[in-house]
Amino acid sequence: MNTLTVGARTLELDKDGYLVDLNAWSVEVASALASAEELELTDEHWEILELLRGFYQEFQLSPATRPLIKYTALKLGPEKGNSLHLNRLFKGTPAKLAAKLAGLPRPTNCL
Amino acid sequence: MSTLHVLSHSPFTDSRLGSCLRLCGAQDAVLLCGDATYALQAGSAPFQALQAKALDVFVLAEDAQARGLSLPDWAKSVDYPGFVQLSIDHDKVNTWL
Amino acid sequence: MSRSLLVISRQAPWSGPSAREALDVVLAGGAFDLPIGLLFLDDGVFQLATAQDAKALQQKDVTANLQALSLFGIDEVFACSHSLAERGLSPPDNAQPLSSEQISQMIDRYDQVMTL
User: Fold this and answer.
1) Complex ipTM tops 0.90
2) What is the residue range of the signal peptide feature (chain C) (predicted)?
3) Do C27 and A65 touch (CB under 8 A)?
4) CA dist., res. C112 & res. C89, Å (int)
């Protein structure tokens, strides 16, 4: 079983490294997941992670790339809701990587 | 454009046949297989509904035979190669899963 | 030009995997930019009812997922007027009601049809 250790807590991860329990997520957990991906989280990352948490709250699913871009554009404007910006932040796979860091399940409609 | 509608559920327990007949176009055909062949039970409501609609009705021979159903003259019996041929002859196949 | 696909969802939301499967096909198709339509027929129209809550059934919320359709590029969402009327439901605001005649023409128009 994959696990992630954050401070004194040991969290369960699925086979692709996604958090099993959505509610176990915290800022510290996100930072730990990010460092496992060798990614330094900036304010620009955080606002996308917050957005994704909101998306999941609203629709109960993790978005594929296109809906993620659309939703970002809707909430944060087109200068952030575009593939260039999101690819730059999340190493070219924004739907998968950002969902992972936001503690959401792997997007199922994204191969 | 013509659609082949494939039905396999009994018309007595389920609304598929009724909905299919309601939405069928004039160019469409129906293929009955499995328990859907019970629609050919003479005198039943599904039998009358099928007859009244005057569509092309095909029946998978072995399924009707297994159930001891005799075919009215407006229904055509097909085997599996016939099923494949029908799928090719129509623009698309809509299987009512 | 990719072929257009009409998905007909005709099962109630919480009775089995069918409603979920239909939605997954639609969302996957949308993610791949397929021209896609979704029609609720028969008991499928119950998926459109508001104020559903299946948390106690421990099921994922299909109805919340439906709200995401337009973000997935799926704007062709329809409901069968006959099925709605049969069940005493008023026309939903998240799907366009169609008569049997209109549905018949729509089935004709799409390149492929999948009924779940």
Assistant:
1) no
2) none
3) no
4) 29
